[in-house]
User: What shape does this take?
Amino acid sequence: MEDFDNRPIGIFDSGVGGLTVLAKIKEVLPNESLIYFGDTANVPYGGKTPEQLLKYGQDIVRFLRSHDVKAVVMACGSTSSSVYNELAMENPDLLLVDVIRPGVKACVEMGLRNIGFIATATTIKSGLFGRLLKKQSPNADLLTKACPMFALMVEAGVTHGPVAKWVVETYIGQWRGKIDALVLGCTHYPLLTDILSPVLGGDIQYIDLATHTAQALKSRIRLNNGDTIPQYEYFVSGDAAAFSKTAHFLMQGDLSVAQIRL
Ligand code: DGL
Assistant: This one.
């Protein structure tokens, strides 16, 4: 059993966005080894169909399982909202944690009422966040908006400056004064917080999926026994150097990244 507990945790996303989840998992579970996969050959996931996302998810889960992971975190709102059930059914022996359900749980527990939810087009189209929220908080009011440019901006390192601010204003400027909380329904979006907050003002509560996903994982995982030094490995399906450069620019850390074709 000790060996099982010390196996790594797999984490995946289309690109750098899932690193926001990885960073929180590192904070909350410092003894765990982590394997990250960024599917940069297929980024963005935001406009992809559930069929496409299922195929990507299946390939990635297979790859992560070949590294003997004890759990997989779907650090991506788009796959979480469209293919979580299918992947969970195909991997009944694997702990699979998504980012949408922990986000809903957080909103319910905080008793939030006037909520704005921004995410990729695929996540908004799935309607999952709203359905789960209404089941548990029938009185909550929810505004939703697909922001297809945001993940692309983050992948390109465009997280500041007048153009980025203008895109934010165009998507959500009309929500000023109308919401109390903004759920960042895509894991790329916490990297835009600096330009989101001036548009909506300081009184808004920002709900980032990473924090709540890391807590959900912690509550469900069999913890590493602390005998081993945690290892962090990073893989991408696209250009490894480009990924390291963006990750370094956005998160100020040096990552050694390997390219792998699934
Ligand atoms: N970060 C992912 C999400 O949470 C994917 C964004 C994208 O590639 O469009 O939806």
Remarks:
- Residues 13-15, 17, 43-46, 76-78, 120, 123, 151, 186-188 surround D-glutamic acid (CB under 6 Å).
- The mean pLDDT is 95.
- Residues 10 and 65 are 8 Å apart (CA to CA).
- The radius of gyration is 18 Å.
